[in-house]
Amino acid sequence: MVAPRNPNDHVTVSPDVLLTIARLSTLRVEGVAAMSAVPGGVDRLWKRTPTAEGVQILVDGQTVTVDLFILTKADANMREVSHTVQREVARAIRQIVGMEVASVNVHIDDVLFEPLAEGKR
């Protein structure tokens, strides 16, 4: 994170930046097929938390809580994919914006199977 030069200087990171970092870090993990939709009911519980393309962010001071909604590939080990996503998203947020990560919660909504090629049924 950029350190302010003067005590009166402020650096503000938009929630959209955090959403983008989390989404791109997740999609880079082997075994993640796509991002899923964020359930509508979660918004009411978290009081208008920033949400975009399968990512929900809660910022409390300098601490971030991330909820990710993903689709995995059928041949992927879901446990390994989940742990890798948690590690990579937390690392990216810490390194890029310098904020602490309280938790990264991974919700696997579905599994995507490759469509069968014609004639291989």
Fold and architecture overview:
This protein is an alpha+beta fold. It has helices at 15-27, 40-46, 78-97; strands spanning 32-35, 51-52, 55-60, 63-73, 100-112. It is elongated and about 65 Å long. A hairpin with a 2-residue loop joins strand 2 and strand 3. Strands 1, 2, 3, 4 and 5 form a five-stranded mixed beta sheet that branches. The model has no long low-confidence stretch (mean pLDDT 85). Helix content is 33%, strand content 30%. The chain has three helices and five strands. It has one domain: Cation efflux protein, cytoplasmic domain (Alpha-Beta Plaits), CATH 3.30.70.1350.
Summarize the structure.
The protein has 121 residues and is of the alpha+beta class. It has 3 helices and 5 strands. Strands 1, 2, 3, 4 and 5 form a 5-stranded mixed β-sheet that branches.
What tags apply to this protein structure?
elongated, about 35% helix, about 120 residues, alpha+beta, about 30% strand, 5 strands, five-stranded mixed beta sheet, Alpha-Beta Plaits
CATH superfamily membership, which one?
Answer: Cation efflux protein, cytoplasmic domain
What CATH calls the topology is Alpha-Beta Plaits
Fraction in beta strands: 25-35%
Secondary-structure element order, as H and E?
Answer: HEHEEEHE
Specify the CATH architecture. 2-Layer Sandwich
Q: Give the assembly state of these chains.
A: single chain
The CATH class label is: Alpha Beta
Helix/sheet category = alpha+beta
